[in-house]
């Protein structure tokens, strides 16, 4: 069973979220009213996912995400907020969040989002990625050769990163490249390790910031062979 710690400064909201998640088979191990308290609870109970509101006292959700990643907490982060603002999405992803969901989303989507993030996937629609990157990443040139930031990746790893940046999950990438899902997972894990990233969501941001792909444009050409 997937487990979470909930953090929101409104007790009524936390109570509602707990009820929604528990009714859908997600175990709620604890709650907190601010980001600092959420991290303390998470260190004790080690949930699969931290569900964090963005606007909280003491430590907001973005700062709490950064600290969770920097200290190696091990719990993945799902940012849940009322505010549909690109800057929040972008900062949450850069901080290391695995997903971003509005509180107005359907209840079933919340439980599914928790499970997706717990599994290490990025909860990001391709349209959202294109929109936030277009708004907040000033234009690096389209990919030609190897972007310096990605020099440590093999041709195949860069090819996989392009497809991750397009919002594709491992099964879809495996079908596209005619690889096994296990092989794709290995490539994704190597990309994260080589680049010092904590989530697929951060890999998406890196792909756009480095110029490997461009918002609304094509990705890198396919190398055509593995290395």
Write the layout of secondary structure elements.
Blueprint: E1 3-7, H1 11-22, E2 27-32, H2 35-45, E3 49-52, H3 61-70, E4 76-81, H4 86-95, E5 99-102, H5 107-118, H6 126-136, H7 155-165, H8 170-177, H9 181-195, H10 200-209
Parallel strand pairs: 1-2, 1-3, 3-4, 4-5
Helix pairs in contact: 2-3, 3-4, 4-6, 7-9, 7-10, 8-9
Task: Give a brief description.
With 227 residues, this protein is α/β, with parallel strands linked by helices.
- Compressed to H and E, one letter per element, the order equals EHEHEHEHEHHHHHH
**CATH class category name of the largest domain:** Alpha Beta
Q: Describe the global form.
A: globular
Helix percentage: 40-55%
- What's the tally of helices? 10
Q: Please, how many domains?
A: 2
Radius of gyration in whole Å, from Cα? Answer: 18 Å
CATH architecture of the largest domain: 3-Layer(aba) Sandwich
Key terms:
about 230 residues, alpha/beta, Rossmann fold, Arc Repressor Mutant, subunit A, 2 domains, 5-stranded parallel β-sheet, 10 helices, 5 strands, about 50% helix, about 10% strand, globular, disordered C terminus, NreC/VraR/RcsB-like_REC
Task: Please give a structural write-up.
The protein is 48% helix and 11% strand. The protein has 227 residues and is an alpha/beta fold. It folds into 2 domains: 121 residues, Rossmann fold (3-Layer(aba) Sandwich); 71 residues, Winged helix-like DNA-binding domain superfamily/Winged helix DNA-binding domain (Arc Repressor Mutant, subunit A, Orthogonal Bundle). It has a 5-stranded parallel sheet with strand order 2-1-3-4-5, with helices on both faces. Helix 2 packs parallel to helix 3, helix 4 packs across helix 6 and helix 7 packs across helix 10. The protein is globular and about 50 Å long.
